[in-house]
Amino acid sequence: MSAYKDKTQGTWYVSFRYIDWTGKKTQKLKRGFKTKKEALNYEKEFIRKTVADMKMEMNSFIQVYFENKRMN
């Protein structure tokens, strides 16, 4: 887990690397969290939704499916 404090703005941000569903290594940076806990939760949820894991629980799969469906 990688959350950092932005001292100039007083907010938290996350910066991490992950492997997407195509196998490509990608870096993600997201800023503007009020607390460290919010930043770490964002990272955890992003990775959970992005990783192509065939061992994903059905409940998690359904959540990701309907979130994607709602956005399109």
Number of helical stretches of at least 4 residues: 2
Instruction: Indicate the low-confidence ranges by residue numbers.
Output: none
Number of strands: 3
The largest β sheet comes out as: 3 strands, antiparallel
Terminal CA distance? 30 Å
Work out the strand percent: 25-35%
Oligomer: single chain
Global outline: globular
Structural class of the helices, strands and pairings? alpha+beta
CA radius of gyration: 14 Å
- H/E element string? EEEHH
Question: Helix share of residues?
Answer: 40-55%
The largest sheet has its strands arranged as: 1-2-3
| Average pLDDT rating | 85
Task: Summarize, please.
It is built from 2 helices and 3 strands.
Write up this protein:
- The protein contains two helices and three strands.
- By secondary structure, the protein is an alpha+beta fold.
- The protein has a three-stranded antiparallel β-sheet, covered by helices on one side.
- The N and C termini lie far apart (30 Å).
- The mean pLDDT is 85.
Question: Key terms for this structure?
Answer:
72 residues, alpha+beta, three-stranded antiparallel sheet
Give the helix/strand layout.
Layout: E1 3-6, E2 11-19, E3 25-33, H1 36-50, H2 58-71
Antiparallel strand pairs: 1-2, 2-3
